[in-house]
Automatic annotation (TrEMBL), chain A:
Keyword Cell wall biogenesis/degradation included in the entry's annotation: no
UniProt-recorded name of the protein: Lactate dehydrogenase
Keyword Oxidoreductase: yes
MF (Gene Ontology): FAD binding; oxidoreductase activity
High-level lineage: Bacteria, Pseudomonadati, Pseudomonadota, Alphaproteobacteria, Rhodospirillales
Keywords in alphabetical order: FAD, Flavoprotein, Oxidoreductase
Pfam families for the chain: FAD-oxidase_C (PF02913), FAD_binding_4 (PF01565)
Cross-referenced InterPro entries: FAD-bd_oxidored_4_C, FAD-bd_PCMH, FAD-bd_PCMH-like_sf, FAD-bd_PCMH_sub1, FAD-bd_PCMH_sub2, FAD-linked_Oxase-like_C, FAD-linked_OxidoTrans_Type4, Oxid_FAD_bind_N
Cofactors: FAD
Domain (FAD-binding PCMH-type) ranges: 48-226
UniProtKB/TrEMBL annotation, chain B:
Ranges in coiled-coil conformation: none
UniProt-recorded Gene Ontology molecular function terms: catalytic activity; FAD binding
Name listed for the protein in its UniProt record: 2-hydroxy-acid oxidase
Domain of life, per lineage: Bacteria
Pfam families according to UniProt: FAD_binding_4
InterPro entries: FAD-bd_PCMH, FAD-bd_PCMH-like_sf, FAD-bd_PCMH_sub2, FAD-linked_Oxase-like_C, Oxid_FAD_bind_N
Organism: Thalassobaculum fulvum
Keywords: FAD, Flavoprotein
PROSITE patterns assigned to the protein according to its UniProt record, in alphabetical order: FAD_PCMH
Record domain FAD-binding PCMH-type: where: 1-182
């Protein structure tokens, strides 16, 4: 993975930059010692590591503004970081960049039950928001698997999803307002406790922008009342095709489950070895369908799902009869990543999305790729929305295996695009999928996206080297040749 | 003054490319049913996208639909209804309010204006349902963004920024959006006789309950739909029959403490009621009154209304979105009482006011969309320039110079 060439001139000014940051954030908020910076050298994508030039941990919006203003004035790159759980390298430091950690922004500022909102600083964890309101029966709906650690600010950057997002939406559908700081150090407030934007939906654009547009310093999200009850059905099938047909039939019957997850046989067995959830080891595919809502509705729908599953060739079927049993159904799925970690020295988690009906096609192609690259693959799959998480098993200590795993992963993702899907469903592009963007977008598409970045960050100082395979200067992108009087009047139906 | 009506996306691009080469501004419409919204424009030509019409792809089991911008909303809703599906954000039809004629809108207009209805508080707005698009920017270039799957974070989410941009960033040529199963049943609980403060508290309690309320409105007066007399606090429950019945019973009990007398409307009466609320039918006549749309924190609704009503006689209003959406019609005035309305909204801490209906001269005189703080306004202008550097597409429709 090639990152932008470090700017020697900036590196030579390091002492001066560190001193300037110390003048803004006193005490231990500036870390310049290599050993102390080590914990920041990578995020959740640990295959890539890079020590930053300096780490700064501000505590106030005014400090963030002063840091960004200084960096902008002095041409210094900035990489924002929440909890560092990105799986795509979104918070990978730059050798000549400031790593701006928001970890000290860890307070819940306002809980408003009547308007159903929580306002929090960006370093508060996703689960921290739910913890703040759960005694009154409320929760924050998006639930990425890393929710115990990932920050709400990072969720905005990545537009994080979770197993419940088919029914309850992604981050972008649940955030109402932010306070942000631009690279020029300007503090802006967008949205609030009301719905929709008065002008352009800048909040929607910011969400999922992977730290390339601005630094968020405060977040307002909507909270929901917890569903009265939840029950799950665990269904085994002989093949993934039958499981896929069952998923289609459930949605076709007008049912939108709170969660609907699929695992293939290797994933079932890895999970079963690890947590003993009682999964059918001989099943070709396993579905977990969770229904949540009012008790009478859940009971009613459980019966419908049971009928649909049986009609679609279920080989085994269990319905949770208690909260313990429901949690047990999930235990294997939630432990799928560490379970695969146990059977392989290393694994790489991919994140493509496909139209659901292409599931059999992508699975059979993955089997062929697995043979071609000589690496095993296990699949967990957000079945409701077509988001695949193939786990590629490899051993980084074997020469060439990491490279083969990367090539296998890229092959899977470009196949997702070929089948009508996309490169990333919820983990983000980051550095990991940056160089594959051309398989989904034309050069014109990517240039337009970069022009949007220029509207926020004309010098390209915020998180450069992520998302876009080629960096262009804003002046070059903005150039426009007007051929006045040279194009003919369009010969198109007119009135 | 020429109106171009392309039959293909390529032709639409040619029109914009020509306009760019001539540096001449173009009005963008798909079926022009909302032409009377926004600041009056000085455009020499019109790009009419009604020829890019029709459903290209509809996959009920994948929950997606793709259509050209000129496709009538009615055509899409009919196709979805055949599969017992819907546009969950319940796009409102501004036709009754603007022209007295409903059913003329296009899907391109729905997304360009980010129109949503009463179910917005549960299901999200139009912007939450656009998965991807193809469009021609003001550089005369065809760009695409997003995809045709419901879960996608590849690249910037430009679907959000085109929704609600009123054609000022790009001319949409193709849209892919999410569809959802339609509810089997609906019931509306009606509590009669509550004052507005109490009604908003009751709606807040309903929204904070686990009973999955999909809409909540308060009507201070009888609106001639749904067989409901005013003042009426209306709470809609949708879903599978047994679930709706159980939730309605539970909610009746939980809301009894707010007083008033409880009743319910079902089936077509309930649908008629919410359609009228959605389309602002109660304020359509008389047609010479300016109509404002206010979005505020739900609990702030009554104070905002009081601030306006205590300063001007003859206002009519009602609440949707559990108090967070206020529709208010005011007596005719050359400024549509803009200063009063916007200072009342400012009292709510956060929110905005849009002048949805007013005479052209009024819309030329006062900001139609809520003025933004200078920093945000400057960012919006830079975003506009990133798509449309010469100001070719619907210039000035939202704000002067943008």
């Amino acid at each position: 993975m090639k990152m932008p060439e470090p700017d020697r001139e900036v590196l030579e000014r390091r002492d001066e930059i560190v001193a300037a940051l110390r003048a803004i954030v006193p005490g231990e908020g500036v870390i310049a010692d290599d050993r102390e910076m080590r914990p920041y050298e990578s995020d959740g994508l640990t295959a890539y590591r890079q020590l930053p030039m300096v780490v700064v941990l501000p505590e106030t919006t005014a400090q963030v503004a002063a840091i960004l203003k200084y960096c902008h004035a002095n041409g210094v790159k900035v990489v924002p970081r929440g909890s560092g759980t990105s799986l795509s390298g979104g918070a990978l430091p730059l050798a000549d960049g400031v790593l701006l950690g928001l970890g000290k922004f860890n307070r819940v500022l306002d809980i408003d039950y009547a308007n159903r909102t929580v306002t929090a600083q960006p370093g508060v964890t996703n689960l921290g928001i739910t913890h703040a309101v759960q005694d009154r029966g409320f929760y924050y709906a998006p639930d990425p698997s890393s929710q115990i650690a990932c920050s709400i600010g990072g969720n905005i950057a990545e537009n994080s999803g979770g197993v419940h997002c088919l029914k309850y939406g992604l981050t972008t559908n649940n955030v109402l307002g932010v306070e942000l700081v631009t690279i020029e150090g300007e503090v802006l407030r967008i949205g609030g406790k009301h719905l929709d934007s008065e002008g352009y939906d800048v909040l929607g654009l910011l969400t999922g922008s992977e730290g390339l547009l601005a630094v968020v310093t405060e977040v307002t999200v909507r909270i929901l009342r917890k569903p009265a009850t939840a029950r799950a059905v665990l269904v085994g099938f002989g093949t993934s095709e039958e499981a896929g047909a069952c998923v289609a039939a459930i949605i076709g019957a007008g049912i939108v489950p709170g969660g609907m997850e699929m695992m293939d046989n290797p994933a079932i067995n890895a999970a079963e070895d690890f947590v003993n959830a009682g999964y059918p080891r001989d099943a070709g595919a396993l579905l977990i369908v969770e229904l949540d809502g009012p008790e009478v509705e859940v009971d009613f729908l459980i019966d419908r799902v049971r009928e649909i599953a049986e009609a679609n060739g279920a080989t085994s079927l269990r319905v949770s009869e208690s909260e313990d049993e429901r949690n047990n159904f999930w235990a294997g799925r939630k432990a799928a990543f560490p379970a695969v970690g146990r059977i392989s020295p290393d694994y790489m988690c991919m994140d493509g999305t496909i139209p659901r009906r292409q599931l059999p096609e992508i699975l059979s192609r993955m089997t062929r790729m697995s043979e071609k690259y000589g690496l095993r693959v296990a699949n967990v799959f957000h079945a409701g929305d077509g988001n695949l998480h193939p786990l590629i098993l490899f051993d980084a200590n074997q020469p060439g295996e990491l490279e083969r795993a990367e090539a296998f992963g890229a092959d899977i993702l470009t196949t997702c695009v070929e089948l009508g899907g996309v490169l990333t469903g919820e983990h983000g592009v980051g550095v990991e999928k940056r160089d594959l963007m051309g398989s989904m977008f034309s050069e014109i598409d990517l240039e337009q996206q970069q022009r949007v970045k220029c509207a926020w960050d004309p010098k390209g100082l915020l998180n450069p080297g992520k998302v876009f395979p080629t960096l262009h200067r804003c002046a070059e992108l903005g150039r426009m040749h007007v051929a006045r009087g040279q194009l003919p009047f369009p010969d198109i139906p007119r009135f | 003054m020429t109106t171009f009506r392309p039959d293909t996306a390529e032709q639409a691009r040619d029109v914009v490319a020509w306009a760019v080469s001539e540096e001449t501004p173009v009005e963008i419409v798909s079926r022009a049913s909302k032409r009377a919204v926004g600041r009056p424009m000085q455009t020499g030509h019109t790009l009419d996208l009604s020829g890019l019409s029709g459903i290209g792809l509809y996959e009920p089991e994948e929950l997606i639909c793709q259509a050209g911008p000129g496709t009538p909303v009615a055509e899409i809703e009919a196709a979805l209804a055949e599969q017992r599906q819907m546009l969950a954000f319940e796009p409102m039809d501004l036709g009754v309010l603007l022209t007295g004629e409903a059913g003329k809108g296009s899907i391109g207009g729905v997304f360009a204006a980010n129109l949503a209805g009463p179910r917005r508080i549960k299901a999200g707005a139009a912007r939450d349902h656009l998965l991807g698009f193809t469009a021609v920017t003001g550089r005369g270039e065809t760009v695409k963004s997003g995809g045709r799957v419901v879960k996608n974070v590849t690249g910037y989410d430009l679907s959000k920024i085109v929704c609600g941009s009123w054609g000022t960033l790009a001319a949409l040529t193709d849209l892919t959006f999410k569809v959802l199963p339609a509810p089997e049943h609906e019931t509306t609980l009606v509590i009669s006789g509550l004052d507005e403060e109490t009604a908003v508290r009751a709606m807040s309690a309903a929204m904070g309950s686990p009973h999955e309320v999909s809409s909540a409105a308060h009507l201070p007066f009888a609106i001639g739909a749904g067989d409901v007399a005013g003042p009426a606090t209306c709470i809609r429950l949708e879903g599978f029959g047994p679930s709706v019945a159980a939730r309605a019973a539970a909610l009746e009990g939980e809301l009894a403490g707010f007083g008033g007398s409880q009743g319910a409307v079902e089936g077509y009466l309930s649908r008629d009621l919410w359609r009228a609320i959605r389309d602002v039918e109660p304020l359509a006549a008389p047609a010479d009154r300016p109509v404002w749309r206010l979005s505020v924190p739900p609990m702030a609704g009554p104070a905002v209304v009081l601030a306006i009503r205590s300063a001007v006689e003859g206002a009519d209003h009602y609440y949707d979105w559990a108090g967070g959406l206020i529709w208010i019609a005011l007596p005719p005035a050359s400024d549509a009482h803009a200063g009063l309305v916007r200072s009342a909204v400012a009292g709510a801490a956060t929110g905005h006011a849009t002048l949805v209906r007013a005479d052209e001269s009024v819309r030329a005189a006062v900001p139609v969309f809520q003025p933004q703080d200078p920093g945000l306004a400057a960012l919006a202008a830079r975003i506009k320039a990133s798509f449309d550097p010469l100001g070719i597409l619907n210039p000035g429709r939202m704000t002067a110079g943008v």
